[in-house]
Amino acid sequence: MLVPRPKDAATLILVRRDAGQPRILMGRRSVGHDFMPDKWVFPGGRIDRGDYGAPTSGDLAPAVAANLAATARLKRQDGAKLARALACTAIRETFEETGLVIGRLDRGPQHRARLTADLAGLDYIARAITPPARHKRFDARFLLADAGHLASLEPTDSRELGEVAWFTLDDCRGLDLPMVTRAVLDVVDTHLSGRAYERPFWRWTRAGMDSAL
């Protein structure tokens, strides 16, 4: 059986701090979706070719850019370009799936939206490659940003995410989550506490899960 090659992808974890406890943006995938249907996830998706040349209004912090660049799997990949594209992917997918904007949204001809992403507030906290038995495989980088960078805090539902809402960490853990999403929430909890941690990298082989730091 031919194992599909993982596709580069990025996910964005948005943290809202305007209440007693931090809240995380989660979306529930459509029950008819062929990848993790009916699960609650962070917004995100695979890189599009256009993400490499997408307009931006702020750059990644040097350390974040370097850490993302180091995740390039293929020798022919330009790590710096990949890092920027992953950040643009996370912001674009979040806009497409929730209507929330980090950066600026301009209306062009025929009222088409043009997103200019602001990468300056993003951090990189985890990575996971989905199992080889899946018909779709992703090399997902999990990015985090404070909701204070958003133009608006009110998400909209989409066809891909049938429901979108803010949850405390405890409430998140009560949702129907993929295993990796649940593990990333623990990383988010540690990150928000200010405690030091090693950025995890989870990957699966035919022998099972292999966790590499």
Helix/strand class: alpha+beta
Q: Supply Rg.
A: 17 Å
Q: Which architecture does the CATH hierarchy give at level 2?
A: Alpha-Beta Complex
First-residue to last-residue Cα separation: 29 Å
Task: Report the total helices.
Answer: 4
In total, how many beta strands? 12
N to C succession of SSEs: EEEEEHHEEEEEHHEE
Task: Report the helical percentage.
Answer: 10-25%
CATH topology, by name, is Nucleoside Triphosphate Pyrophosphohydrolase
Largest sheet composition: 9 strands, mixed
Counted up, domains total 1
**CATH homologous superfamily title:** Nucleoside Triphosphate Pyrophosphohydrolase
If you had to describe this structure to a student in words, what would you say it looks like?
- It is a single chain.
- This protein has a single domain, classed as Alpha-Beta Complex (Nucleoside Triphosphate Pyrophosphohydrolase).
- It contains four helices and twelve strands.
- Helix 1 packs across helix 2.
- Strand 8 and strand 9 form a beta hairpin.
- It starts with 6 loop residues before the first strand and ends with a strand.
- 23% of the residues lie in helices and 33% in strands.
- The radius of gyration is 17 Å and the shape is globular.
- The chain has 213 residues and is an alpha+beta fold.
Summarize the structure.
By secondary structure, this protein is an alpha+beta fold. 23% of the residues lie in helices and 33% in strands. The chain has helices spanning 62-69, 79-98, 169-173, 179-193; strands spanning 7-16, 23-29, 40-41, 44-46, 56-58, 103-107, 113-118, 123-129, 138-146, 161-168, 201-205, 208-212.
